[in-house]
Amino acid sequence: MAKAIINDFYNYLENLKSKNNKHSEELDMKCRDEEEIYKKISIGFNNQDWTQCKSNFEVLSNNSKEMRKIMKNQSKITEDTFFLTEKILFLTEKILVSNKNIEGRLALLENTNQILRYSDWVVILIDEIIVPKLMGDQNDWDRISTIFTKSILEDTDHYVLENEEDDRLF
């Protein structure tokens, strides 16, 4: 999906570039036409050929209208480019937020891994020191471990005790 979105952006951008180049060439051509029209108007004034001057002013007027039309199209291309840029920035911001969340999860996993490095030592501590001295026998600890494991597997935040005898363990 991400690849498709990126390809859409590239296609849209290429389309904007193509339109921009086309309009730039048209505008350059109209500017050259305008220079020629001014020369013709100047010649008409110098020769006092008012009919030719009027005709050249009409050509100049039409040329100016076409130039304004090209400039409006260029403005639309600029607006579309801004829209595309905003869209890309919005998605980039979403990606950065997502990456920040992933970084947080990775940090949590790293902390978990550091804790798990000591898990064997904790098991030995519980099995050899805590259970015999504080809780009675191994069967008590096995029942407590089973209750906690079951709670974890069932994804509950409370521990279901099967009978009153288990209740005394807590």
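the 2nd protein, sequnce then structure:
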Amino acid sequence: MLQLATKAAVALVLMSAPALAESWNVSEESNSGIKSSTGTWAVTADGDKLSGKAEMQSAEGAPTAYTFEGSKSGEVYTITIGEREDKLTGCVWTGAAPEKSDPKHFKLIGKVKCSSGPGFVIRASKM
């Protein structure tokens, strides 16, 4: 009976464990490679699901913040970006490790497609 209660307690703790939180350094750049903003993403990972908040600063110094949510499938990250202060909407980033990248270092790059304007590129790395 005690063994059954112990197993139940362990299962409850594992189910209620907090999601993993981490910080990523992020840069946004135009499709031509001109950096437009840099900052951090506070990423919460719960299994293959991701969510968080971005705190960015444009090259001109203006702050930009937005939320995001998405998922990881294998080594590909797909993130839907929430309402941005620059009014771009319907933005989805698909990021993966660049070819020939060092597997010891977490780095992602990918294009963002937006329904309301030009897309851009996001580069991310864990802090």
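The chain is about 10% helix and 55% strand. The domain at 19-126 is CATH 2.40.128.120 (Lipocalin).
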